[in-house]
UniProtKB/TrEMBL annotation:
Residues 4-85 form the Heme haloperoxidase family profile domain. GO terms for molecular function: peroxidase activity. It comes from Macrolepiota fuliginosa MF-IS2. This is Heme haloperoxidase family profile domain-containing protein.
Length: 181
């Protein structure tokens, strides 16, 4: 926070922090994997402090001060006199962070510093690809043969997920468990 944000969590801090964490992981974690869904969520969680933890009365130049950050993360409490934001967050913040230092989805394939891009993985600009991969690979890997209430809940939530990307993915709804009855 001090080096890039003058003691505050800013978009510049978010960009540099995420880049340095990814580079550190490539260099120190032989099993580092930055493929979906993790690829999307590493950027999503980087935007979380500004999108959700900044006092809602701050509407421009939204940054998170060090004292408020410590209150949130060290004591798990709301800062004194804090208001929730009324500003909707968008995926634009995610791509802004990612665009600062572009790295494609991939993983270390043979120990540390062996990061290889996986061209089969969708990047952050391919919401349809992220959705299709999540619906057809990620969810079924966690729930291989759901039945009853779990199957029903999965189908409902997969519908919600598709509804959120339908503009990017018209006519490409996925049904990994078959169409709901």
């Amino acid at each position: 926070m001090d080096q890039y944000g003058g003691g505050r969590y800013t978009w510049d801090v978010a960009k540099e922090f995420k880049w340095h964490r990814i580079q550190n992981s490539i260099a120190t974690n032989p099993e580092f994997n930055l493929m979906q869904p993790r690829y999307f969520t590493v950027y999503l969680e980087t935007t979380f402090p500004i999108n959700f933890l900044v006092d809602g009365r701050i509407t421009e130049n939204r940054t998170l001060g060090k004292d408020d950050a410590l209150t949130w993360f060290k004591t798990n409490r709301f800062p004194n006199d804090w208001y929730r934001t009324g500003i909707p967050s968008t995926f634009a913040n995610i791509t802004d962070v990612a665009d600062a230092h572009v790295i494609k989805p991939g993983r270390n394939v043979n120990g540390v510093n062996t990061y290889e891009i996986d061209p089969t993985q969708p990047d952050l600009y391919n919401f349809c690809g992220i959705y299709v991969d999540f619906a057809n690979r990620v969810v079924p890997s966690m729930y291989p043969k759901p039945t009853g209430a779990i199957l029903e809940a999965l189908q409902i939530n997969l519908q919600y997920l598709y509804d959120s990307v339908v503009d990017s993915c018209p006519g490409q709804q996925q049904f990994p468990y078959g169409k709901p009855q």
